[in-house]
Amino acid sequence: MIFLIDVQLPPGLGRWRVGQGHMAHHAFDLGLTDAPDTVLWQRALALGAVSITKDEDFIALRGRIPDGPVIIWVRLGNATNRTLIPWFAARFSAIEAALASGETLIEIR
Question: Which residues lie closer than 8 Å to 48 by C-beta, 6 or more apart?
Fold first, then answer.
């Protein structure tokens, strides 16, 4: 599985996914730090990637463009890698189940 991590989330989240055996790209690593959301959206589609974001604008895009990438919407306040990675890891089996069932918008709290 391929993941595209949005700029509001730390690159460490991508490294963690790679460590779990998945491909992951952070917007920073792709030179997309200042890119508009639509560019990240299109890149995720081109890569066949699942977008991981905290950005509510992606949810609005999903409403206008239903054929977009799968979105994992992270609903957590500011967090360091030290707290974010375990928080995300504790929820990842539920995320995988949602992905396997064909969910296209997965909100995690």
Answer: 2
What's the domain range around 48? 2-108
Q: Which two tokens stand for residue 80?
A: 């360091």
Q: What is the CATH number of the domain that holds 53?
A: 3.40.50
Confidence check: pLDDT of 71 > 90: yes
- Residues 32, 42: Cα–Cα separation, whole Å: 12
CA–CA dist 50, 89 (Å, integer): 16
Say how many domains are in the chain: 1
Please give the DSSP secondary-structure letter assigned to residue 97.
H
How far is it between the farthest Cα atoms of the chain?
35
Q: Is 82 left (phi over 0), alpha (psi -120 to 50) or beta?
A: alpha
Query: How far does CA 77 lie from the centroid of its chain?
Result: 15
| Integer CA distances (angstroms), 97 to 35, 39, 53, 74, 92, in order | 31, 28, 19, 16, 8
Q: Tens digit of pLDDT for each residue in 20-43?
A: 999 999 999 999 999 999 999 999
